[in-house]
Design brief:
Length: 184
């Protein structure tokens, strides 16, 4: 296992699962890391770790989602580790790149919000798994998002609007956890 993967593994191991499903996913991801020393790289054919960010407006009333160009669905921001084992830093980096908001701040106090393992079938690539580790990220007051090439659209939604357009249970779960964290 590489030093970077040790860091990622430690972050996932430190997560306190909210329920039995999250505990199962945590164990599964840790096992995957143990058996795939290249789990931080896109070249890991079975799948790889990804960092996700739920970007919340300063008012705490809106969340930023993008219409993913490859998948054609509204999703949270995030992406590939590309060898970086600090999953929280990956989530923040990807959120900055995909939102165009340079002054985003990672909520380290919130820790990992959610774990998810799902199959993806991107155009031109083999079907593989994304082992998604999600974090909470805050935008400053007056933040203006600008779309990247990875998005067909990028928009602030109220929590209720975001829950309505979410077409996957994993995104609904993630949004629910993020909303609870910012309203606590």
């Amino acid at each position: 296992m590489t030093a970077g993967l040790d860091v990622a593994r430690a972050q996932v191991a430190a997560y306190e699962p909210a329920d039995a499903q999250q505990a199962e996913l945590q164990a599964w991801i840790l096992g995957f890391c143990d058996s795939h020393p290249d789990a931080l790289l896109r070249t890991c054919g079975d799948g790889h770790l990804t960092g996700a960010a739920v970007v919340v407006a300063a008012s705490r009333e809106h969340v930023l989602l993008h219409l993913h160009a490859k998948f054609g669905r509204w999703l949270q921001l995030g992406g590939h580790c590309d060898g970086d084992g600090d999953l929280a830093a990956v989530a923040l980096r990807e959120a900055v790149e995909e939102s165009g908001i340079a002054s985003l701040v990672l909520d380290r106090g919130a820790g990992i919000l959610d774990l998810d393992v799902h199959s993806v079938d991107p155009p031109g690539e083999a079907v593989h798994l994304h082992l998604d580790v999600a974090f909470l990220v805050h935008a400053p007051a007056g933040a203006v998002a600008s779309m990247s090439a990875e998005s067909l659209d990028l928009r602030w939604f109220t929590w209720d609007e975001a829950a309505r357009i979410a077409d996957e249970s994993r995104l609904v779960r993630l949004l629910s956890r993020a909303r609870a964290a910012v309203q606590a």
